[in-house]
Amino acid sequence: MTFPVVGMVGGGQLARMTHEAGIPLGIQFKLLSDTPQDSAAQVVSEVVVGDYRDLDTLRDFARGCDVITFDHEHVPAEHLATLEADGIVVRPGRAALAHAQDKGVMRARLDAIGAPSPRHRIVADPADAVAFAAEGVGEGGGDGFPIILKTVRGGYDGKGVWFVRSEADAHDAFKAGVAVLAEEKVDFARELAANIVRSPHGQAVAYPVVESRQVDGVCDTVIAPAPELDDELAGQAQELALRIAKELDVVGHLAVELFETRDGRILVNELAMRPHNSGHWTQDGAVTSQFANHVRAVLDLPLGDPRPRAKWTVMCNVLGGDFPDMYSAYLHCMARDPQLKIHMYGKDVKPGRKVGHVNTYGDDLDDVLERARHAADYLRGTIVE
Ligand code: ADP
User: Fold this and answer.
1) 100 and 106 in contact (C-beta within 8 Å)?
2) What is the pLDDT of residues 39-92, one digit of tens each?
3) Distance between CA atoms of 16 and 382, rounded to whole angstroms?
4) Residues with beta carbon inside 6 Å of ligand 1?
5) Which of 77, 97, 121, 193 is paired with 316 by a 20 to 30 Å CA distance?
6) Above 80 in pLDDT, residue 157?
């Protein structure tokens, strides 16, 4: 075979969709998955079932791969360092990934390069969280609450994030035995994401900045491009993402999650160095999807055009509800909206679990939003017509 082998660590839906994007290119995928039932393990032909926390498993897996990339950020940094020392090509590399693995490391680096963050510092205990809150008290007085506490590692989908109104609320964050980062509670108008892809030799492409709406800490809807976003602010967000990628030497897809403040500034919430939920719209709404560009980037191929194909594209996540048979909803959804694209992950339906998403597009934003929302709700079983 003359085609390269991409080793993907982690068997979730991001791996599944990255593999899908590699198929037309003839790229071989090898997967390291926790179980044979994981979303990507169901579709990739070469699957190693094993634990990514075990160095020997990782080393065996890496043998025969031309490059290693990731579905998640949880591979221990010391293992990544060993793989790199073994001469394995790891993209993004250990040094870049450290910023997506640890929110404390990320904040310190963003400060060093002058990227805007919410006010923050590591706090030692609940009393220190009270002191942090008080440090933010302006002329209005008060105790400085509410604040946000986050474990520096291990959080996802709002887990590991606490909204704290008093010292008593602060105790839970310290129970995990992981360092805790305190942040001012940003009074944001909305959440945005600036997504870019960068290749090893430094080519980079920027997708339009999107609006991301969360429900209970989980991404629910993404609108591309972000409606009524000031052109200058959109340009600033894209430049910021490109600059972060360059400074941190990110290879592949980088999602920069942002807050847009009510006074028209952007602040970085967090970084993800892999394809990201805020980029799923690109599968059907951009000339080159985030997954296709991630594959190109990790192989150091020229990147594809990131421009949108439609005026508006909306993505809605499909969360599991009480209705396990999603296939029976296809007839209605497809008949109602011929533009609709359904992406299912092969996961068992459990309440609140992300089991798929839909994309749809068109010229009228309200109409596109309504069609995407309807399809996601219908698949979930919350609307029965
Ligand atoms: P996760 O790792 O779970 O994605 P995030 O750091 O993105 O955690 O936080 C989850 C959500 O919590 C964010 O999408 C946002 O809605 C809210 N949040 C996080 N940090 C702040 C903050 N400093 N101010 C206000 N809201 C925040």
Assistant:
1) yes
2) 999 999 999 999 999 999 999 999 999 999 999 999 999 999 999 999 999 999
3) 27
4) 118, 148, 150, 155-161, 183, 185-186, 191, 214, 217, 257, 269-270
5) 97
6) no
